[in-house]
Each structure stands twice: as C-alpha cells, then as structure tokens.
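User: Second chain of the day. Same drill as before.
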Amino acid sequence: MRAALWFLILFGMAAAAALFAGNNQGSVTLFWPPYRIDLSLNLVLLLLVLGFVLLYAALRALAALLELPREARRWRLRQKERAMHGALLDGLAHLLAGRFVRARRAAEAALQQEQALQAGGEAVAHAVALRTLAHVVAAEGSHALQDRATRETHLHAALASAPAQGPVRVQELREGVQLRATRWTLDDRDPAGALEQLAALPHGAARRTLALRIKLKAARLAGRAADALETARLLAKHRAFSATAAQGILRSLATNLLDGAHDAAQLQQLWASLEPAERSMPELAIHAAQRLAALGGEPAQVRAWLLPAWERLVELPHALPDAQALKLVRTLEASLDSLDAAWLARIEAAQQANPRDSRLQYLAGVACLRRGLWGKAQQLLTQAVTQLHDASLRASAWCHLATLAEQRGDAEAAAQAWKSAALQADTA
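Assistant: Same format as last time:
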C-alpha cells in the first residue's frame, strides 16, 4: 500500500513538472558587462536543482571525512567490547564444560579488556555487571581448583564492584554473588560460616528457595536440628520437594530433633513444638513413644502418642509396614503395666474387629495377662502363637504362655513353652 502511494505521488509530480515546463516561455537574463546571457527558466531551475544536489553531496562528503577519526575510534571500541564479551562467554562455556583453568584464564582476560577500556576513558554501559560476572567465573574456577586464596580475591572484587546501595539489578547481582559464596563456604565444610553468610543476606533473598536449600544443608551439617526442621517446612510450603520427599525429609529431621532430648520433659517440649501433621506420622509417633519410654516417661503419655498410629493400624491393618507395626506392638506391650480400662477396651475392640490379625490377638492376650485375666490371655496367646510371622513375637508369646502354665502349676506345659520360646529366640 505504501509503495502504491509513492508511485501515485511520483506520477503526480511528473505530471505537474510536465505541465509547468512544457509550455513555459519564461527566460532569465544575466547581465555581466559587457556580456549578456539569456537562459530559459527551465534550464535555470534545472541548474539550481543540480547545484543544490552537488552542494549537499559535497557537505555530506566533508562531514564523513571529518567523522572518520571518530568512526575509527568507535570501531576500535566495538572490537574491544566484542573481545571482552567473547572472553566472558568463553569463560562461562569452559566453566560448564569443567575446564576450570581455561575458564579462569578467559575471565581474567575479560577483566583485562574491561580495565583497558576504563583506563582509556571508554566507559561500557554494563561494565558493573560484566566485571562482577567475570570475577564470579574466575572465583568459581578457582574454587573448583581448590585455590582458596585466588577465590577469595575474586570474591571480594566481585562484592566491591556490585555495591549494596546500587540499582535493583546491581543489588540482585550482589545477592547472587553472596549466595554463591555461601555455597563455596559450605563446600569447605564450614556450616557455621555458611549460616553467618546467609544471615547477612537481605530478608527477601534469605527466603528464596536456593537460600533455603543451602540453609537446610548447613543446618544439618552443623547439627542444628530445630533450624533444619524449620527450614525444611518452609521448603515444603514452597514446593521445593515432592510430597513424598518432603514427608520423608520432615520425618527424618523431626526424628533427629527428638533424639537430641536428654530427659522426658525436654522430649515432651520438643514433641509439642512439632506441627500436627508431623505428630500424626506413624513412624515419628512410634519413634517418639519409644524414646519417651526409654527416658522413663509416663506409660499413659507413651500410649497417648501412639494413638494416631494405633488408629491407622486398626482401620487399615496393612497401612503400616510390618516393621512399623512390630515396633508399635512392642512399644504398646512395654507400656501395658499400668493399662487403664479405656485402652483395654480399645485393644479388645480392635482384636474383635480384626480376629485374623495375629498381632492384635497377641497384644490383647498380653493386655489381659497384665490385667489378671489369665484364662482369656491363655486363649488369645494360644491362638496367636501359631499365626505370628515374626519370630521375636512368637518367642514372647511362648514366654507368656510358659508364665501362665507356671501359675497354673503345669510344669510340663511350662517346660514345653520355654523350650519353644528358646527355639524361636534362636531363629529370631
């Protein structure tokens, strides 16, 4: 469309020129004594146009001639900038390829080019970012080469070239350098130093996923279970892990936290500090109950912590792995000395609802034994001992049956039960 309009304009101009010049009888007379020159008006107009064109071309040629030194200077500057950018890109490529010596050499070459431009009075618009990135590449290569002195030199230079009170882009660049330095400190097996560097970050940068991952690893290496657990919670909320991985990490960190308790009171405080979702994890609840029992805690408190895992076992007998179910039964068995009526009813109801579950039969038999219901205990343990899959539980069941036989005065049955218990203990 634009080309068609230009053609129409050109055609209009040609038609106007033809109409004006075709019948133009005007003339121009120049008097230069003793001469007289007569020229047609069309020729004069043509000469004026040609003169203007020639004058314009001459002025443009003169301007280009005068601009040659400046153009040459700009060309040299562009060549130096291209060499500088090429050296930085080479350094990044070598760093990704694992050629750390070449990466450091290329980054240092880029820094030399930038310094040469700066010394020549040629300021590069993005000199701060380029200089900082070149120092980071050189420091990364030095870190991979275990050259800590050179790494620290380039690190300090990178931080100096990216001031904290600069533009937003420069501030983000500085935060990136600080995060990278934290990773280097952590690689040096200095978790305390890494945590100090993370604490020096701005609040927004310290809550980023990368910073939280570094903090999690540093806290675990430093043995700060509480800080590691809190950081893992934030990462789980940010969806830095999958749901399964987050659950496993939280369970492991919470277990480490509980293992650090020195008495029952401290363990109860740590347990109360956990989130409800964490306290409802069967593996964690069983471990906490075992830990509480080992520290001499109240049996009623042990059973209260085991209640979520117990309800899951009763509702879905196969929801818990066999190892966890065995731990649950063993932990409950150890706390049955002061069994209350509510838990006895709970165990009996679970056994009646799942009559084929030998583990519940065994636990109900032990509960009846502790409550003095010897006849019912004898019946439940006799039914369970032939169906239990775990050798240790079978050995315990035979031991309880031997105790019941001794209380009845049946020496022969007691001896046979003790013998079977010994055999099961050998196979366990």
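The radius of gyration is 44 Å.

User: Great, on to the next one.
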